[in-house]
Amino acid sequence: MAPSTTPPPPDGLLVVQPLRRRHCAECRSGPLSLLVLEEGAPRCLDCADLGHLVFLPRGDTALTRRSREASGLSAVVVRFNRRHGRYERQGVLVEEAALALAEERCLADAEARRRRRVRDARRRAVEDARFTEVFAREIQRLFPGCPAERARAIAAHASVRGSGRVGRSAAGRALSPGAVTAAVRASARHTETPYDQLLMAGVPRHEARRRIASSVERVLREWRLREAV
Fold it and tell me: Which intervals hold domain DUF2293 (predicted)?
């Protein structure tokens, strides 16, 4: 499907990236990488009084918007897509000073966002450290025989943000005894029994858990009943 003589007009001036070799009907320069159609005839940007504008490719919505807002003169650049049978936007032409100003503003926004991300990360780190400490204390309340360092290690592992582990679940955040016990049980399974070795040897997970279940429960009973040294 060939492009129509005149593409549908967008909001403002229109510049075309031609698919075939075209020359300016006024100054005969060409072939043109960009042209303006005036009464069906191609004009180069200089003859169309747009030669002082610079091209900004599509992709950065904020930069495009700010560039057009700051530019006294601008144009939309389109190219015909034969496969889809329509003209598609490729970018805009704007004044160079407007583009520079828009870039400065976007950079300032990016720096502000970076500073906010740093602040948010610090706040989350403080919140996570506090929650890990609370989680560790709850472990030791339920399992007084669990060494303090071990309780902190279990709490830190279970409550990693974004991990999907039990400490990040709703029950874990609420310090549910079931969630706390599940975290302790998981730790005992991996560190106090040959569970990992069974998995590495190809034993199915459910069978491996069955084999070490009594060992895990023995550890939990000891930690529940024995005061930590």
Answer: 139-224
Q: Show the beta-strand stretches assigned E in the chain.
A: 13-17, 36-38, 41-43, 53-57, 75-81, 86-95
15 touches 34 (CB < 8 A): yes
Same domain, 100 and 18: yes
Residue with structure tokens 């830190």?
A: 156
- Low-confidence winner among 4-8, 38-42, 205-209 (lowest mean pLDDT): 4-8
Full residue range of the structural domain in which residue 155 is found: 143-225
The span from the CA of 163 to the CA of 194, in Å, is: 24
Reply yes or no on whether the pLDDT at 229 is more than 50.
no
Write the secondary structure of 198-215 as one string of H (helix), E (strand) and C (coil). Answer: HHHCCCCHHHHHHHHHHH
pTM, to two decimals: 0.52
The number of beta carbons lying within 10 Å of the beta carbon of residue 80 is 18
13-17 and 75-81 strand pairing? parallel
* Cα 189 versus chain centre, distance: 35
Query: Can you tell me the distance from the alpha carbon of 143 to that of 12, in angstroms, rounded to the nearest whole number?
Result: 72
Question: How do residues 62-78 score in pLDDT, each as one tens digit?
Answer: 999 999 999 999 999 99
Residue 150 sits in the same domain as residue 94: no
